[in-house]
Amino acid sequence: MHGTYDGSTEAGADSPLVSVITVCRNSEGTIRKAIESVLTQSYAPLEYIVVDGASSDRTAEIIAEFESRFDGRMRWVSEPDAGIYDAMNKGVHMATGVYVAFVNSDDWYLEHGIATLVAAITSGAGSDISYGGMIRPPAALGGVERTVAPGEMTVAPLMRAMPACHEAILFRRSLHDRFGDYSLEYPVAADYEFVLRCLAGGATTMRADAPIVHFEQGGTSDLDPAAVEREYARVRVKYGANRAAEWLRSERSILNGRVYRVLGDAPLVGPRVKAAYERREPLDR
């Protein structure tokens, strides 16, 4: 089942607890803004969990500065892990909320982001997943900030591209009991695979037609675009896509990305190429 919610951000008197999770490592330059965006959420029944991968910079010190400001609603650890999805799994296991959401250390929520997602997921009979849009920064769009609306989150469109960034999604915590953790088999696409796994297993979704988060470029999936494309193709093959077709698709997308990076810096050509590429680029990249 897929629905669309365009009502208020009020979740009702019996508002459920939401566990917001941030995973980070050596994020001293960005994490303060992410934490402040959680602290200033208009939605009150909220706990905050930070999983730091034994940072060697001042990240842990900055996290500690905020602990008292959450009035007992914040827990955090700083220890080695096996990568971003291992850290995300740790956060889920620490969570006690009915719902779970993730905000990366270089992204930040809009004030009513969590309230919007909760209102959507609890509307009507309720759903397993709610999701909304994002605001892309000027650096990703040739100097233009843009609000990107979410697409339809069912299996068929999800097999083409992720319709929303992971930071704009709210999950029912019990989905991890039903479908398991993020798979460490996919170093950069385990969030995509988890959503596909849930939907293929019958999870229901509700779209909120509002932006939830400022989504910055430069995360893990931006470091090696070719590896990301090939890993996404591997996930789609796992869920029934044709192997040869996915190989061709991923290699074509990799080539397009390389052309963009060359022409995007060229005088005159650059702005048009950037605009065209941004229109076709999948959201979760």
Question: What layout of secondary structure does this protein have?
Answer:
Elements: E1 2-5, E2 18-24, H1 31-39, E3 46-52, H2 59-66, E4 74-78, H3 84-94, E5 99-102, E6 108-109, H4 113-121, E7 129-136, E8 146-148, H5 155-158, E9 169-172, H6 175-179, H7 190-200, E10 205-214, H8 220-223, H9 225-238, H10 243-263, H11 269-280
Parallel strand pairs: 1-10, 2-3, 2-5, 3-4, 7-10
Antiparallel strand pairs: 5-9, 6-10, 7-8, 7-9
Helix pairs in contact: 9-10, 10-11
In short:
The protein has 285 residues and is α/β, with parallel strands linked by helices. The protein is built from eleven helices and ten strands. Helix 9 runs antiparallel to helix 10 (243-263).
Give the low-pLDDT segments.
Answer: 279-285
Query: What's the end-to-end separation, in Å?
Result: 26 Å
Mind summarizing the main beta sheet?
A: 10 strands, mixed
Residue-averaged pLDDT? 86
Helical amount: 25-40%
Classify the fold: give the CATH topology of the largest domain: Spore Coat Polysaccharide Biosynthesis Protein SpsA, Chain A
Number of strands: 10
SS summary, helix count: 11
Supply the CATH class of the largest domain: Alpha Beta
Q: What is the helix/strand order?
A: EEHEHEHEEHEEHEHHEHHHH
Structural class by secondary-structure content: alpha/beta
Instruction: Write the CATH architecture name of the largest domain.
Output: Alpha-Beta Complex
Instruction: Tell me the overall shape.
Output: globular
